[in-house]
Amino acid sequence: MTNLHTLDRARIRELFDLRGPTYALLGGAYHDDPYPTWHRLREEAPVHEGVLHELTGFEGPAMFVGLPEPDRPHFTVFSYEACEAVYRDPEIFAQWPDEVNPAGGELSPVNSMLFMNGPGHKRYRGLVQPSFVPARAQWWIRNWVEEAVHTLIDGFVADGRAELNVDFCAVIPVLTITGSFGIPVERALDVRAAILAPMEIVDIMTPIVESRRTKPQDDLISILVHAEMKDERGEVHRLTDAEVYSFALLLLAAGSGTTWKQMGITLHLLLQRPDLLDEVRKDPEVLRLVIKESLRWMPTDPMFSRYTVVDVDFYGVHMPKGSVVHINLASANRDPARWDRPDEFDIHRSQKPTFAFGSGPHVCLGMHVAFAELTTAIGALLDRLPNLRLDPDAEPPKIIGMYERAATEIPVLFDPGAVR
Amino acid sequence: MGSAQCTVYAPNSFTLDAELKARVLDPSADPPDVLRHAVRACPTGALNFDSDEQEERA
Questions:
Q1: By CB distance 3.0 to 4.6 Å, which of A144, A254, A313, B27 could disulfide with A176?
Q2: What is the pLDDT of residues A356-408, one digit of tens each?
């Protein structure tokens, strides 16, 4: 990955800065702390009629999956117990209201397994699940994560200062996932820029898919191209081009979109706690606890949605068939019925499951890879940048955003070191 | 489904087999509250406590 210099810093900023155009429609203009309002709403009732950002007092724009859907009733769920009930009952709370068929239909991230229900989803997910289990974490780290992390650090290690959020965090997941799809570094940002323009990604992927068909390599795209799937009639077949591209669009978007923001949130938490930073330096196991607690305390994507397939009475609220149900998982993660002192960032609290990666049959496919990226990247920063600290003369980082939350910037100083 | 959540929460008690189904290694290898977290963490609710055997159903 020596050609990392081909990445254009200004373009990275344009694509990833929460304050920039990319995130403006996703609620980038929201700069407040939503948690006090969410506590109040949860105390009033576990389920409210309405859309999360409006209930939070933010008029928008704030788009996300499940929005705006102006012709449907909307409900938002705030308590851990009620969120769990939605996640665990996909027969009532479906992932998507319409039939999805990646083998046909329009090419888009929506026409993918993310929006399928029941056995169809299970068949598709089963093809990639083996590549995303914890036992495969080292495969991801060795093949893609480490190289990206250390090459990026080489780029600023001698300077004694860096901006970590966009210049470091944002780049690692996009290079990891594009690398696993065989996409060269110089096209990585093109992929991110084209997330909503599927044909451009297909143009990039076509020669790669063709070459992997005849000559598989040790990467995810080779696994997809050669995967065999049993259809509903029990017949085994290889994935069609349309199915491969559907996977590519979904995994490239999901893989490059979330982990970097959680990395910045975790770094921002650590850098504001020098004592904790020292603990992590002494014992790498502490870093795992920090990451887990960061995922509970502030998951980067606070809300995902489901659609009711029947009329349902739920926690005292009547939801007609076809309603959109927004799961405020970030609120659930601070439900005082489940956690003492829920607003306190405490790495020593009991390791109860959280909804940082969702739950139910659509629980985050990439969660173990995300965890591997977070530990590898933050661990390498602490190893290679002695005396790492926030730049006291720069504006301190702030977490902003409604449906995609992330740090503004993370300007740091450290003792200059050597390139590998 | 092979989410492997149980192996994260109770790594001494659970493993995934070749078909990515959860299997119990040794139900006494983790403390009871750790086991409880592992069972609740299962995204599809596929794990259940059986107080006599602590056997799982995947």
A1: A144
A2: 999 999 999 999 999 999 999 999 999 999 999 999 999 999 999 999 999 99
CB atoms within 10 A of CB A178: 24
For residue A411, the model assigns a pLDDT of 98
Q: What is the DSSP string of A234-273?
A: S-EEEPPHHHHHHHHHHHHHHHHHSHHHHHHHHHHHHHT-
Tell me the whole-structure pTM to 2 decimals. Answer: 0.95
pLDDT by residue (tens digit) across B25-50?
Answer: 988 899 999 999 999 999 999 998 87
Out of A9-13, A201-205, A383-387, least confident range: A9-13
**A197: distance to nearest CA of chain B, Å?**
30
The rounded distance, in Å, linking the Cα atoms of A116 and A361 is 10
The DSSP result for A301-334, as a single string, is: S-EEEEEESS-EEETTEEE-TT-EEEEEHHHHTT
Non-local (6+) Cβ contacts of A140 within 8 A are: A176, A180, A369, A372, A373
Is residue A148 within 8 Å of A176, Cβ to Cβ? yes
CB contact under 8 A, B1 and A129: yes
CA pair distance A114, A125, nearest whole angstrom: 9
Task: Calculate the CA A398 to chain-centre distance.
Answer: 19
Of A88, A353, A361, Cβ closest to residue B37: A353
Q: How far apart are CA A43 and CA A76, in angstroms?
A: 14
Q: Within a 13 Å sphere around the CA of A327, how many CA atoms are in the beta-carbon half?
A: 29
What's the one-letter identity of residue A142?
R
Residues of B in Cβ contact (< 8 Å) with A130: 2, 20
Helix (H, G, I), strand (E, B) or coil at A360: coil
Tens-digit pLDDT profile for residues A127-143: 999 999 999 999 999 99
Q: Which 8-state DSSP code applies to residue A111? A: S
Q: Is B8 on the interface with A (CB under 8 A)?
A: yes
Strand partners for B23: B15
